[in-house]
Write a structure and sequence with these properties.
- This protein is of the alpha/beta class.
- The chain has 2 domains: about 5-110, 2-Layer Sandwich (Nucleotidyltransferase, domain 5); about 115-345, ATPase, nucleotide binding domain (Nucleotidyltransferase, domain 5, 2-Layer Sandwich), CATH 3.30.420.
- The protein contains 10 helices and 19 strands.
- It has helices spanning about 40-60, 95-105, 115-125, 125-135, 195-205, 215-225, 230-255, 270-280, 305-315, 345-365; strands at about 5-10, 15-25, 25, 30-35, 65-70, 75, 80, 95, 110, 145-150, 155-160, 165, 260-265, 285, 290-295, 300, 320, 330, 335-340.
- Strands 1, 2, 3, 4, 5 and 9 form a 6-stranded mixed beta sheet that branches. A 6-stranded mixed beta sheet has the order 12-11-10-13-19-16, sandwiched between helices. A 3-stranded antiparallel beta sheet has the order 6-7-8.
- Helix 3 (about 115-125) crosses helix 10 and helix 6 crosses helix 7.
- The chain is globular, with a radius of gyration of 22 Å.
Length: about 375
């Protein structure tokens, strides 16, 4: 393995294949995109091969490995992609890993986009930034676990535990979109946490047909009174997303207990949905006897709010006496989790995650 390996990267989606190259934890070429749509599987696969050859041309060097995300369902360790809704030419299993290894004669690693996004943010994004702020506040607390979620065409996720990416025994770890939708219980959470969900609710509230509804960025601007439109309907659209997302995150974080980072195309609308998200995550349960108790064992903080960030990172607690001795130890009963927005940008986080995953696998060889 080269001392400074170059890893070719692909962020594959239903509409485009975005290629890049990473060396020493930074992108060394300007990312470029090739439309993914094609009438046949052969043409789609040739686009993948062409894109990685273009990476060679732009880098002026060959890769030490290829690492990329591809939509599921898939057998990621063996690099086999199954039937895909957004790429209908994929049917019956396509052995991408073996195909690309034959073409480029380097190791090829494939994973889920939500997983690689979470991995990038855990190693080089929000998680180390939070720990740096804790250190600056002289707070001994450090976070090791992260849940990453992406909000866009779909709803994806990934989990990192103490710098280790959770893949799962069936390449299905972190498939957060399969949570039940708390607003529409016969559907998955994705039907209320996605681009189509924001447009659907705005259309429902205004009586506009779905195909005529504004795109989410416009609905965000309407909610902020920056564009003309139905502000109440726009706020309703983002509040429903926040309500559904809060239920899913509260359930997930009760198991993972760490930092939450949000990315994807909808994450830029955080000023309108984040306050409701945090409020709903912290809303208490009510027991059958009418008493209320905490929804989570932890308290969620909005890391995008300056005051909440201070409250999250500041040192708290007190010294308590060790029984039957003159010793004292520090005790902080406060349990906090933070929710923030991607620090790297979703695409860059995926690229860094793909690079880190490849480097980890190369060390094993």
């Amino acid at each position: 393995m080269n001392s400074n390996p170059i890893i070719f990267i692909l962020d594959a989606g239903g509409t485009g294949f975005k290629f890049s190259a990473v060396q020493d934890w930074r992108e060394i070429i300007e990312p470029f995109t090739i439309p993914s749509a094609a009438p046949s599987l052969e043409e789609v696969l040739k686009k993948l091969i062409t894109g990685f050859h273009e990476c060679e041309t732009r880098c002026g060097a060959k890769a030490s490995a290829i690492s990329f995300c591809f939509p599921g369902p898939a057998d990621y360790p063996n690099g086999i992609i199954g039937d895909l809704e957004n790429l209908p030419t994929f049917r019956g299993g396509v052995a991408l890993k073996a195909m690309l290894e034959n073409e480029f004669q380097v190791p090829v690693f494939i994973n889920n986009d939500g997983d690689l996004f979470a991995y990038g943010e855990a190693l080089n994004g929000l998680l180390p930034e939070v720990n740096k702020l804790l250190e600056q506040q002289r707070n001994p607390k450090r976070y090791k676990n992260l849940l990453g979620v992406t909000l866009g065409t779909g709803f994806g996720g990934g989990i990192v535990i103490n710098k280790v990416l959770l893949n799962g025994d069936n390449s299905a770890g972190g498939e957060i979109n399969r949570h039940r939708n708390p607003l529409l219980p016969t559907t998955s959470a994705e039907d209320s946490i996605s681009i189509r969900a924001v447009r659907r609710v705005y259309g429902r509230e205004t009586g506009i047909a779905f195909e005529d509804t504004p795109h989410p960025y416009d609905i965000y601007q309407i909610a902020k009174a920056q564009l003309p439109g139905n502000k109440e309907a726009a706020l309703k659209a983002w509040n429903e997303l926040a309500t559904a997302l809060a239920d899913v995150l509260a359930n997930a974080i009760s198991l993972i207990d760490g930092i939450v980072v949000i990315g994807g195309g909808l994450s830029g609308a955080w000023p309108v949905f984040m306050p409701m998200l945090i409020q709903k995550m912290n809303e208490p349960f009510t027991s059958l006897n009418g008493n209320s108790f905490s929804r989570m064992e932890t308290v969620a903080y909005n890391l995008m709010d300056a005051q909440d960030m201070i409250r999250f990172t500041e040192k708290s607690g007190q010294m308590i006496k060790v029984p039957f001795s003159d010793q004292h130890v520090w005790y902080d009963p406060t349990k906090r989790v933070g929710v923030g927005i991607t620090k790297l940008g979703t695409s860059s986080a995926v690229a860094i995650g793909a690079y880190a995953y490849a480097m980890e696998q190369l060390k094993k060889d």
